[in-house]
Design goal:
Elements (H helix, E strand, L loop, with lengths): L22 H6 L12 H7 L20 H4 L12
């Protein structure tokens, strides 16, 4: 997630994702686990990461609480996966 509201910090430039990197940076840094069947096929194709899976390999995602740092990346999840 973007921490742009904290831009008063000296390290603010380094705590924000690059503007054009998309999900690939999140996979490379380990922020998002690269689990087949979990993510939206349009994002995976746009990144050239891999071919999307036909069926989700994940039954559901458990969200422990709704703080923004825990739920901001649900936008990347495949539409048919219950949260």
């Amino acid at each position: 997630m973007s921490f742009s509201r904290m831009n008063h910090s000296y390290f603010a430039t380094f705590s924000q994702p690059r503007t054009l990197a998309g999900m690939n940076d999140l996979f490379v840094t380990g922020i998002l686990p690269d689990i087949p069947g979990l993510y939206r096929p349009d994002f995976l194709q746009q990144m050239g990461r891999r071919e999307p899976e036909n069926e989700p390999l994940v039954d559901a995602v458990l969200l422990t609480h709704a703080h923004a740092d825990h739920c901001a990346d649900v936008q990347y999840l495949r539409a048919g996966i219950p949260i």
